[in-house]
Structure formats: C-alpha cells, structure tokens
Amino acid sequence: MRNRYSAPLPLCLLAFLLAVCAGCGGLTPPRTVDETVNNPALTPAGMKAAIEEAGMRQNWKIKDMGEGRMQASLTVRSHTVVVDIFHTAGSFKIAYRDSVNMMYDGTNIHPNYNVWVKALADAIKVQAVGA
C-alpha cells in the first residue's frame, strides 16, 4: 500500500539529481594566491628558479617579465589560463591575468582555474623550500 505522504520515486530521484548538480557547475571568483616561503637561504634568483621548475613540472609555460615578475600560461585541451606571478626572495603572489574558454565573466571563472592555480602554488612552495 502506498503512503499518501511519500512522493513517487521518479520525483524523488529528480529532486536528488537537481540538488547534486546545482553544486557542481557553478562559477567561482578567481583565487589570488599570496604565499610566504619558509626558507631563509632563498634568494630572489632562487625563487625565480623555483617558480620556473615548479611551472615546468605542472606543464605551465613561464616567461620572465622583468625584475620580480613572471607570466605563466597553462593550456588544458581547449582551455587556457594566464597568470602573473610576482616574487621576492621569500614570497610570491599569483594573480589572474587572462583566460580562454574558462567562462570568465569579469567576476567569476570556471572552478578548474582555482584547482590549477593551487596546484601551481603548492608546487612552487615545495620547490622553494627545497631550494
């Protein structure tokens, strides 16, 4: 016997799928990473080398833009992100610069951007601490 208070199974499944999908496709603000590295022996040249090595290991293309500034780009399938990296001997900052096919609307971007930038930042920290 059917309970008059229970919703039909297809309706419950639809509600569940809508709830799950609502959280998986949203845009998010692009993350700016501002990190301090705990390595007193690290020089500005050492930080630059750590960024270049970490970028290479994460498949980013790194360009030196002058004193304390680099530009990094990553292409994954048809998606490209470009970030500015500002660095000193003991710190670095990664900031959004541009993107292609990342749904950036001036405020929000595809969440993979933040995943890729975090992976780059983590790799830089590991490289810089070991330098």
Explain this structure to me?
- By secondary structure, this protein is an alpha+beta fold.
- It is 36% helix and 27% strand.
- It has a 5-stranded antiparallel beta sheet with strand order 1-5-4-3-2, covered by helices on one side.
- Strand 3 and strand 4 form a beta hairpin.
- Helix 2 crosses helix 3.
- The chain is elongated.
Number of contiguous helices = 3
Rg computed from alpha carbons, rounded to a whole number of angstroms? 21 Å
Compressed to H and E, one letter per element, the order equals HEHEEEEH
Main β-sheet, spatial strand arrangement: 1-5-4-3-2
Shape: elongated
Number of strands: 5
- Low-confidence parts, pLDDT < 50 over ≥5 residues? 12-23
What composes the largest sheet?
A: 5 strands, antiparallel
Mean pLDDT: 88
Sheet-strand content, in percent, reads 25-35%
* First and last CA, distance: 71 Å
Output the structural class.
alpha+beta
**Which assembly state applies to the chains in this document?**
single chain
Proportion in helices: 25-40%
Short description:
The chain has 3 helices and 5 strands.
